[in-house]
Design brief:
alpha+beta; 5-stranded mixed β-barrel; 4 helices
């Protein structure tokens, strides 16, 4: 029984080390929560609790850490990341340069100095040049827009 327990202790320790190495290599908060679960399971193993309790603790601690700390980590870690062109355009108000008509497959706007193909969110919506529209999505190289409404 002691030999089997030592193998389990080594297994939890190896899993913890592997998860920490993956976290260090990726630097993207990918496995830190599971490493916390592995640490909890390792501690329960050292205290002599059964393998069932160790596995339950591993999954429970991993889940709790993921649920309660991930939103905090996403909000406050790596906040200096700049939005890409794609992310920065969604939600932006643009001026239509060429009539937007999904049926005729026409529509164009210039956004940040770049020419974009524009399509309306609804096929029955037609937007004339100089009208304002709000970008709601991007599909491939096409901006998907809706009519601009004052907020």
């Amino acid at each position: 029984m002691v030999i089997q327990d030592s193998y389990i202790t080594i297994a939890w320790l190896v899993l913890l080390i592997i998860l920490l190495i993956v976290e260090i290599i990726t630097v993207g908060l990918t496995s830190i929560w599971a490493a916390g679960g592995a640490l909890a399971a390792l501690l329960l193993n050292i205290l002599g609790l059964s393998l069932m309790w160790q596995v339950v603790a591993f999954f429970a601690v991993t889940f709790v850490l993921l649920i309660f700390t991930r939103p905090f980590a996403v909000r406050f870690i790596n906040t200096q990341r700049e939005k890409t062109n794609y992310e920065g355009i969604i939600g932006k108000t643009i001026r239509i340069a060429e009539r937007v008509d999904n049926i005729r497959q026409t529509g164009m706007a210039i956004v940040n100095g770049q020419e974009w193909t524009v399509r309306a969110e609804r096929d029955d919506l037609i937007l004339e040049p100089e009208m304002l529209a709000k970008v709601v999505n991007i599909s491939g190289v096409k901006l998907i827009v809706k009519e601009y409404e004052e907020e």
